[in-house]
Amino acid sequence: MPYVNIKITKEGNVTPEQKRKLIEGATKLLADVLHKNTKTLVVTIDEVDTDNWGIGGIPVTDLRKIAKAKAAADAELKAIATKEEPRPKKKEGKGLAKVAKELEKAQKAAEKAAAKEEAKAKKAAKEEAKAQKAAQKEASNAEKEAAKSSKKAAKSKKKEN
User: Fold this and answer.
1) Positions in the chain whose pLDDT score sits under 70
2) Buried b or exposed e, range 19-45, using 16+ CB within 10 angstroms
3) Which residue, 99, 98, 1, is CA-closest to 44?
4) CA-to-CA distance for 3 and 7, rounded, in angstroms?
5) Residue 32 sits in which domain range?
6) Quick one: pLDDT at residue 161?
7) Looking at the annotation, which residues are catalytic?
8) According to the model, what pLDDT value does residue 33 have?
9) How many domains does the chain have?
């Protein structure tokens, strides 16, 4: 008896009709692909609170807040950049354009800095891996030398006897 468990975040926006369609669709998929009897297929839907669901180490609740704040900031930037006042003075128009350019420049600088930090981290990780590999090789060579010395000592001892 196949069992399918669908997990979705509990945000109050999934209707009973949508859930019914999910259950029907999953049942049909298993019946079509695995040739299973639909009367024995079980499909459940678990709604998980966003505080209990994390992606990339961050709870979905926080991710939603971050996305909402970013969308609001983007909308505000767009509004500032496209805001038109009736017959603005030349100085005011230039000021808005200057602010928009400065914001864009700051965003690009932040992205560039983040990319640099990521590249530094990758480089450091590569160097660390390289150093570990070299240390392992050195240890292996030392073991081989010790084994050679041990064999020579054993041969010398045999010759003496």
Assistant:
1) 83-96, 161
2) eeebbeebbeebbeeeeeeeeebebeb
3) 1
4) 13
5) 3-52
6) 67
7) 2
8) 94
9) 2
**3-state DSSP call for residue 88?**
coil
User: What is the Cα–Cα distance from 133 to 129, expressed in whole angstroms?
Assistant: 6
| CA–CA distance, 156 with 152 (Å, rounded to integer) | 6
Q: How many angstroms separate the CA atoms of 56 and 63, rounded?
A: 10
Asked if residue 48 and residue 30 are part of one domain, the reply reads yes
Q: What is the amino acid identity at position 14?
A: V
| Neighbouring C-beta atoms of residue 52, cutoff 10 Å | 11
The phi, psi pair for 59, rounded to 5°, reads: -60, 145
* Length of the chain counted residue by residue: 161
CATH number at residue 42: 3.30.429.10
Q: What is the pTM of this model?
A: 0.44
